[in-house]
Amino acid sequence: MKYCRFQSESGPQYGEVVDRNGSLWIERLLPPPEEDPWTKFVDQGAFKPVPLDQATLLSPVVPSKIVCVGRNYKEHAVELGNEVPKEPLLFLKTPSSLIAHKQAIHKPAISQRVDFEGELAVVIGERCSKIGSDEDVRQYIRGYTIVNDVTARDLQKSDGQWSRAKGFDTFCPAGPIVTDEIDPDAGIQVQTRLNGELRQDGNTRDLIFPIDFLLRHITAAITLYPGDLIPTGTPSGVAPMQPGDTVEVSIEGIGTLSNPVIVG
């Protein structure tokens, strides 16, 4: 199933997304997931289907945390002058950094270089802690979405840790939808375009640490809850963005996450 979170006349709602002859529509409303008690479900009879591209989309998840994975593509580690990690490099982004498809990324005045990082992200569907080697990791996954792990590169280098550089408001665009209809292990293309020019072109088959390994590694230390977001790393080709730019991250089977860049 594919679903999105969007702004309706009655407030935020979740909707099932279906393909109508090549066009995506929000076909029906869905009850909000357990991690979002603030959304009031509207009577199904009051909703009329709407084309996805005409809806005001919201961030598709309401996470307690965003656990990211750094340098999970060999060529990306090399382009930044870093060694390929021997185990996953984890860091957190703030939930307040989340924005939706078409919302603006704000370039802060205190950073001289703000980069895009297009990524496939896992959406957690069930509470999980210390996932065993004999367990099927997929039972804990609700689906997948797109994330742009926006990074103030100069602050990342100067701070020595990454919380500020990756945690600014608007530094985690996510969306446009969540789907459980793709298989990253089979190899899915991850592409990023800046003002229409292809800048990143990777494939999930090149992940250093695959998703099953990542979730076991993360939950050995951190309990994950429904709605938590796990961006899995970015391919090579990261580059700076400037106010006036538009960055688009496209992933097979999900769609395209597009965001303009403005002065923060």
Automatic annotation (TrEMBL):
Key word Metal-binding present: yes
Keyword Hydrolase: yes
MF terms (GO), sorted A to Z: acetylpyruvate hydrolase activity; isomerase activity; metal ion binding
Domain Fumarylacetoacetase-like C-terminal: 65-261
Keyword list, A-Z: Hydrolase, Metal-binding
Pfam families assigned to the protein according to its UniProt record, in alphabetical order: FAA_hydrolase
Signal peptide positions on this chain: none
GO biological process: carboxylic acid metabolic process
Protein origin, superkingdom: Bacteria
InterPro entries on file: Fumarylacetoacetase-like_C (IPR011234), Fumarylacetoacetase_C_sf (IPR036663)
Entry-linked PANTHER family: ACYLPYRUVASE, ACYLPYRUVASE FAHD1, MITOCHONDRIAL
Family stated for the protein in its record: Belongs to the FAH family.
Stated name of the protein: Fumarylacetoacetate hydrolase family protein
